[in-house]
Amino acid sequence: MKRFIGFVKKEFYHIFRDKRSMFILFGMPIAQIMLFGFAITNEINNVNIAILDQSKDSETQKIINKINASQYFNIEQKISSESQIESVFKKGKVKAVLVFENQFIKNLQTKKQAKVQVITDATDPNIANAITNYVNAILQNYTQEFKRDSPSSYQIQTQTQLYYNPELKSVFNFVPGVMTIILMLVSAMMTSISITREKELGTMEVLLVSPLRPFQVIIGKVFPYVFLSIINATIIVLLGFFVFKMPVEGSLFLLSFESILFIISALSLGILISTISNSQQTAMMISLMGLMLPVIILSGFIFPISSMPMPMQIISNIIPAKWFIIIIKAIMLKGASITIIWKETLILIGMTVFFIVLSIKKYKIRLE
User: Where is the ABC transmembrane type-2 domain (predicted)?
Assistant: First the structure.
């Protein structure tokens, strides 16, 4: 019995001395519960909207102030004409535009009803529905307050218009998200496993002392995954177009360029993971826990980033998938050109360069 107790103590000592095991045992669960607890929500908060006030009277200003004071909306800008609505949506910041009709207060007092048009960016159907419901609730609350000052019955009618996805097809949201997840996992996880396999077997050092230069070896290892990821991306776009009738409004060349850029970014991230992993098991754990969950939760694929706490919103900015989803939706659904998505493209390029430079530096330290 003493031998058994001594053996168990030894195992405890081994676990406690291994910082990676301790991180997996205690760090991962804490990180995941915090991530899930704060990020996963079906509610919307701080959604950016624009206002087109054609009436400009005291009552429309009261409604605008009421909307802005709610936790659900943030008035990003005020526009002066309907011709600006599409350009505002294409920039990607604004999710809805509220249009107040001419002579709003006059119509409310004389005709006993007035109209507010709720125009939403329906590339994410769930957010579009939630925005409409919240606006209706705020307007209904305002109408009840307005009735207290007058015995007459008043009504504010809302007219809904959906941009880019008028039928509210959820597949228009899921095809870009699934494409992002597949490209990230195939590119990053498979690359990191492939390279750590060579390190486990001791053949990577053999390759690096061959006539090939280190960067040629690395490029040779990851090139097949570039090719395979491009095939995957092509299959997903074709299935989305022919099977699910998802439009591709923008340039196919631009879509291809952005997809290849994201693939290279994911590959460079996979190489970076391989530099800090000594085994395939460690690489797999880091890839699954460190990439898959953030890609699903913090990329805006399923849960709106604007509804997350500010620390989560800041963290989401370092997730390459977030920027790729913005880019691919803008190209496929909105027909955006590079003049619209240049900022997101530059961010992806910067991340790719950063990952590649850091990976090369790590490889020089460890393998040369």
Answer: 128-366
